[in-house]
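**Entry details**
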Amino acid sequence: MLLALTLLALVAAGLLLAVLGYRGRMCDHAPHCRSCGFDLTGVLEEVDHCPECGVTLVHERAVRWGTHLRRPWMMVSGVVLLLLGLAAAVPLLPYFSSPAWMARKPAWLLEVDISRGGNDRSAALVEFVRRLGRNEVDDEALTRIARLGLALQADASFIWEPIVGTLIENALERGLLTDQEKERYIRGAVDLRYGVHERVNRGSMLTQELRCINTRGAAFSRLSISVDSCTFEVEDPSLARTLREKADTFTMHAFDTSANIQQALMPATRVEQAALGEHRGTARIRVRITSATRPEGVMPPIEYVSGVYVRIFPENVPTVETYLDPPLRARVEKAISIARVRHELMPAGALSLDYQLRIENLEVPIIGRLMVRAREHQQGNAERTLARLERPLTEIDLSPSPVIMYSGSTTMNVFTAEELKSLPGSLRLEFWIEPDIDLAESKQEWKILGERIELGAVDLDLRPAP
């Protein structure tokens, strides 16, 4: 640190000498035209324009008084000192971006680094948190940094750093923020979403969901969210009772607010008496924010409001609508193709498959199950289906997209020990997507293409390698 200050003083001295040498000393007090330097002694009171260049002399700064004689020796000395100081400081440049330099910066300079942004912001934030741990930050400085953090939290263009949330929460727990600032932080840090299954049959289970997602909060938050109450404003009293019946589950749980943590509660209640048709309303979730040091609450309770929409169908009536559209089906079959199938036949007769689908320019969402059927394929003989090999490979949930590569793998028991002795020359695998109403309902996709999507067939060579 002493060396850095010495070099800084050397650079400052060199710069000062160079400036003073360039300015020089005043050798007379005669008036001169600032534009061309013409000596105006004896004529300044008689003319309004310079006799030499014609510039007007009415303005105050049009005339320069005195002549400065530059000092070359001083300029040279200053430049030499400046260059020596800069050359000696080059090896020290990494030091000024190191943690050791950050540890020596005064608090006001750390605040400048944080507010200005750039490469030093992250290091300054880390140093500020380190000093907080050593109780070296006063309340006034912490309040300023916390309010700067609130501004960064509200700035959508700022790539969130959870350490900013740590600083804000320290100020929040110390009671340095107003109730409005506390609520602003909590709403920006935690997204509490209430939802309910939109379609359900009377007599079936209606699932509610309360999901807590930390979006722009602290990495290791000491705060937790406890649900105080849930109220539902729905016209049908029976449906309102059904929703309230399991809403107590929410009040028995405290959500962690640490960054990158998503938690969800999904209680289900049987719908018995609610009227058929559509029901709309509002859910009001009142929450309390607590911490380990302040279990009574760090701020007044806040309320999250969400819309409620439920459509109740009669028993045994599908809640998912299927539609038939042959031209669309043809386009979907063209959009989905088998890009690759690799196989390996195990000694015990199991077949290991590694497959990849290419989905290009898909227009509509496709939900179903990827199916496969195996046929013995021998040239000149009739094909015989191996029924035990017709099976679902995986769930398919495809969104409209320009290009998707969908990969998967599976192992199937294909041949018995006796069949291994007389293997066919090849095995034909047929792939298709079977629409699945139950799967669509679980994903709350209420309208799907109800037609089987043929993907084609692949012949696998089962002959042993020579």
Notes: The first helix runs from residue 2 to 23. The radius of gyration is 39 Å. The mean pLDDT is 81. The CA atoms of residues 34 and 60 lie 11 Å apart.
